Amino acid sequence: MANNQSVRRHLDAFTRGQIIGKLEEGRSVTSVAAEFGIAHSIVSRLWRQFQTTGTAIRGFSSGHPRGTTPADDWYTLSYRPEETGGRQREKSFDTQYRRRSLWCREHRNWRDNEWGRVLFTDESRFSLSSDSHRILIWRERGSRNHPSNIIERDRYGGHGVLVWRGIMFGSRTDLHIFDAGSVNGTRYCNEILPYVRLFRGAMGLQFLFMDDNAPCHRTVAADQLLESEDIERMDWPARSPDLNPIEHVWDFLGRRLAARSLPPVTIRELRLALQDEWAAMPQQLIDTLILSMGRRCETCQAVRGDHIPY
Length: 310
Description:
alpha/beta; two-stranded antiparallel sheet; 8 strands; RNaseH_sf; WH-like_DNA-bd_sf; nucleic acid binding; Homeodomain-like_sf
């Protein structure tokens, strides 16, 4: 164990980048660990760190930790064994696991053309400060993805821009960058749902709309607008960003911004850079992510609804 920790501490940024790159190509953790001559557990932890925080390689971060509020907002991880009410929370987590497992069981056998009719959507904040969302935490070994380690994260804090987008097999929405101010139900209806309406009009009744359970998504006005447009909303399990393929899109954009020879230093530059990188993103990458949904469901069900390292 001591040797593994020593190796992990001395993995430089270049080596970490090589490891992440090979894993993103679809290589298994076992094969990558063997190639670099390091323990499987080290590569696995590095991959989970990257999937959760986007910071396995230090650099420009999207500021979008994988997580949620109680209504599927963002979360970050923290272990607090001294908190009271642990038994009640464990019951709540068991319920959450069961719902996730049931959802995955219902969808794991979906064919590619069924996933292809879903518009996956999400919001994310991109900050000019790469470390604006990093914190140091303590927790028990092996407890990273335990729901007791999930706390709320402010979706709209920090100096940057909040963006929304949707992805679908063979297509995508424009990248919508919100002007200053918080996003409430009214802004969601006025600024975001028109994009959804366009896709519904193009696809017809087979269209399926996925958004998470954030409060601004679940207002009476939003529900009524979707119903009036005959837009079917996909049932989505709470606190399940690991099941949403769009999470990888946020990571991709963050890395592309970091790789620029002149990273953005003003809000205007950040907005322009995001639009450029979004337009340049290969559709094949998006399609591959959407077609991973079956594997995500199988993996999640295999761990009985627990969170998965996607």
